[in-house]
């Protein structure tokens, strides 16, 4: 099975309906990541198989839950998402491709990583995707959703991005096993309201989303 067939199989397992244009964007993004990784060291994963399961499908597995949140009570047009410590654009670029109504900013302290996101947005023709070179602590927002993957402990993630969260915004942290110690260490100002288990096609590992908001 080639990369595209495996991607389409994964989307089917996730019950995620994407247009051919969106699938082409995902494939182009994977190519860009593969090509520029050699130059910029964007990710430790280099094989095509790992790129598919550990990056694309791992991020795609979150999309149905994100879409439910965006379209649920309080959902409205023009929502903004900040992906913190986005690196090579995971999960931010995948979210921007799958949710074209969502405006996605990927922030990273490393200039070349933010530049890569800007370049990907230009190549993919996406006006809803932005790369920002900054520390998250310096951003004002407001963002309706603030996401992260492989970034920091929940207490640090929420403390460093609190000023950028909209009054009624939510944090979406992608984690492996339910991080019980990190949840217990959250300060009183932050409320964890849901831990949502995820299954990633082709990946035999525990995954979850930790949803949080202001208390
Ligand atoms: C382990 S990488 C994760 C990259 C990506 N999210 C992924 O899952 O593949 C963490 C990223 O966070 C960035 N980072 C660290 N501290 C940061 C901060 N205070 N503000 C923004 N980005 C930060 C690093 O430069 C790095 O690219």
UniProtKB/TrEMBL annotation:
UniProt-annotated binding residues for S-adenosyl-L-methionine: 85, 90, 136-137, 149
EC number: 2.1.1.170
Coiled-coil annotated residue ranges, if any: none
Pfam families: GidB
Keywords linked to the UniProt accession: Cytoplasm, Methyltransferase, rRNA processing, S-adenosyl-L-methionine, Transferase
Subcellular location: Cytoplasm
Superkingdom of origin organism: Bacteria
UniProt record similarity statement: Belongs to the methyltransferase superfamily. RNA methyltransferase RsmG family.
Function comment: Specifically methylates the N7 position of guanine in position 527 of 16S rRNA.
Protein name: Ribosomal RNA small subunit methyltransferase G
Lineage: Bacteria, Pseudomonadati, Pseudomonadota, Betaproteobacteria, Burkholderiales
